[in-house]
Design goal:
18 strands, 7-stranded antiparallel beta sheet, 7 helices, Rieske Iron-sulfur Protein, homotrimer, Naphthalene 1,2-dioxygenase Alpha Subunit, Chain A, domain 1, 4-stranded antiparallel beta sheet, alpha+beta
């Protein structure tokens, strides 16, 4: 059901301190993130091989993880290197280890075949470390399938309805934006322009435009299986924005990472960044502080959707024009899933298979 | 499992104001009740045909309902008449509409074949609008099958046990009442008389009888699938009550409408009315204010019953004499269900069937 | 799944007063404990044969139990002796009765074939009534299978890890204790010695040893299916403790009774006793008051284990040396279960079978 051969965001970097640990279920598998004494980020299966207690109930000792039940000690690779009270460590005493990359203030984890875990495939987000930008972030637990969150982001005509009390504006302006959807082999881009339009009050409050109307843009990039980056902004009308020059305006970058917890629950990591120079200090602050409430509005919607689909999943849905982005996004995900299924069938032993037997 | 070709109470009329809406699951189907600007009561399927968000997250515009996700607009019949951002509305863009009748301060809804929805079949309750009567009401969410509530009401020998702290009295008086059960094709009536009996303290406090003992009555009418009306009262002994003259006494009318939400949860609407002239003001008030606590006692019982049946549903139950009313009530319900099943099998296309396909 | 032909602790004796009653699910069956007016402890099926309401919603009248719904009355054997409002009591109107023994401040119940319920099989615990001992007790609701609690108790190397903030000590001392496991046909004993060891701070605070190091012991007795008694203590080094003379030291007795509620929830009854003479009053008190927190730590562990096993039950577990006690305990339980299954198959009509038919 899930794509395992992919990088997922597993945690914000600051969720795990040196010698700290964090248990989290990702793609229905238990994972414990931890940092060694020198700060290195690691991830193991969060389930002691002895009696199945999550290792996140234990503690980090140097660069090893010790179970909090009977003290078994695991190294970075998940190999048990010590069983208190006995000399010999059983050969089968080990847990899975997962490749982790700490980058752009995030932990990225690869849950599939480690041989395929190429860090170059990770979505970069330099705005998190660029001193010219300020940003806020959070993680929301969403009781909905992760693709419902992607759907939400790929069709921003919802902004005028769902977010009318936060970042919205005239619904009409959003639904009549010039929209273009393009798809590559590894991404989907939805570009929306509202040229020569009245800037929303939030923009006006935060920035001094020189023209009464502005050219506004929204650029949504989907990177499968579960990342969406959104550039939004505006500048003076007819000053080259559409030709590619966005300097001298107001600009935001949003990052959305919807990592599946289970089929019906999602860790929704989000951040919102804006250029630091924009506007007066108190106005600047205001522009980002509307984000938590905004994403909370999305949470209500996708959870209600999930409950509705659970009740009557078989009833067909009707497509409309603004679905183009999400349809392409879902097709990319379906295609990755199909590839992975074929890969597994081809392999004698799939990467995430384990021998199954009864516990004693 | 449910009888769909029947009128059910869906909401109290004052739960939905003009331009207001209310989402509620009835018979395992999502329904949104709303009022147009001019106050007309309507009900649609509470599930947008586009992305399945409940329409109760949207808003009423004039006499139309607009989805709160991407702004699709539905008319009174559930036909989508506008999709923001595009000219053409897809032909299949529609949701179910349900016949609604607002009557006696209640919304009645027909969830089955609309062609059979005859308003004359609705149980009337004129006491809700008769200025000579005062009444209170509520809706309780009960975690039990609706028929367990009907059972409860059809055997009032429970009053002395379950309600000993509220409206009860001597259990013996209740279990030894003269009881007659009659059944027609469309209703069950249980009549209980306690002639020449000592009036309960609550009656004495509220009413000045001229005789030390009174003739008391309880008359329970079941109208399938899910309505029970109960007349109770007393008057001076041997002054014609049994012959049909109930004037000059104290009288109450209770209405109980147990509309299924799911197989194991019920919207239990109840009201209690009494003649306005009776007793001193503060005593009058007292007589009705015991009702919420009384129905809360029933809630405890039927929910415990449901949990017990869930645990061991297959263990047989033993019938006793006072079950006569509920046995007849259950037979009427079973018979309606049987009729509806036959009707569906006879029809080429059952009224509540919809083509089923995978969502895209 | 459960062993029914065995005594289980059902309640603390003081949980049920004369004329009091207590509903509790044991081995997935509803039980109501009650005391007659003269204090006799009894147990019936907690489900009225009429409409399935738990009898624990009723009341005790003399030595009979009356249902709180329509007033059916049951005698000590579960036979219905009165149905209000009718002369005849239906022959099939009865509920199961269970043998109960009140002993050592506990109610013991036998859920299987009453013919096999020999009170001599009940684990005795004289410390609860010995005036030379003081003790505390409680019941914890644990969301885990009862055998996970037995496992926990049979391998006390967990004490240094799980209980480091309460009764723990150096993990190493616990894991390097001299441990011997012996198994009889009806019990498992794990004996652990820490000779010539530094006494833990709690011991030192509570007792005046004459030697700098002490001989410490832990003796764990498992009595299937669900009882574990633990003797712990210490005395001056080389003063005969290992040879059997434990006088003149500090000693504790813990009792643990993990009665299944369902396959994944357990009533965990525990008590902790110590000799009354030991230490100064305030120190004595301290020694026992750490127990509630200690058992709460175990609750966290076994519930996390259960959740982990629920997620991936099929993944094999790895055995280590300190598992010897729990492995033997599980084998005894498996053997009892096997015996009971054979007994049932041999019998024409198993003791707990009942005819199954649809409720009317």
């Amino acid at each position: 059901m899930f794509i395992y051969n992919a990088w997922y965001m597993g945690a914000w970097a600051d969720e795990v301190k040196p010698l700290g640990l964090l248990g989290r279920v990702l793609l229905e598998l238990p994972v414990v993130f931890y940092r060694t004494e020198d700060g290195t980020a690691l991830a193991l299966e969060d389930r002691c091989c002895h009696r199945a207690l999550p290792l996140s109930h234990g503690c980090v000792v140097g660069d090893q993880l010790q179970c909090g039940y009977h003290g078994l000690v695991y190294d970075r690779k998940g190999v048990c290197v010590k069983v208190p009270g006995q000399e010999r460590v059983p050969a089968q005493a080990k847990v899975r280890s997962y490749p982790v990359v700490e980058q752009d203030e995030m932990f990225w984890i690869w849950m599939g075949d480690p041989a395929l875990a190429d860090p170059a495939l990770i979505v970069r987000h330099p705005w998190h470390t660029d001193p010219a930008w300020v940003w806020i972030k959070d993680r929301y637990s969403i009781n909905a399938n992760y693709q419902l969150i992607t759907d939400n982001l790929m069709d921003l005509t919802h902004v005028g309805y769902v977010h009318q009390r936060t970042i919205g504006g005239t619904p009409q302006a959003h639904s009549e934006a010039e929209t273009q959807t393009t798809r590559s082999e590894t991404s989907v881009k939805v570009t929306r322009w509202m040229p020569n339009s009245v800037p929303p009050p939030a923009y006006v409050a935060a920035f001094k435009f020189n023209t009464a109307t502005v050219d506004r843009w929204m650029e949504i990039d989907f990177f499968p299986p579960a990342a969406v980056r959104i550039h939004t902004g505006a500048k003076d009308v007819n000053t080259g924005a559409r030709e590619g020059d966005r300097s001298g305006g107001i600009a935001f970058v949003g990052l959305n990472l919807q990592t599946p917890e289970t089929a019906k629950s999602t860790h929704y990591f989000w951040s919102g960044a804006r250029t630091y120079e924009v506007g007066e200090p108190e106005l600047r602050a205001k522009l980002l502080t509307s984000l938590p409430a905004t994403f909370a509005e999305d949470k209500v919607v996708v959870e209600a959707q999930q409950a509705s689909l659970d009740r009557e999943g078989g009833v067909p849905l009707v497509m409309i024009a603004s679905d183009a982005g999400l349809v392409h996004a879902r097709r990319l995900v379906a295609s990755m899933l199909e590839n992975e299924t074929q890969l597994k069938e081809a392999a004698a032993k799939p990467p995430d298979a384990r021998p199954v037997q009864e516990p004693t």
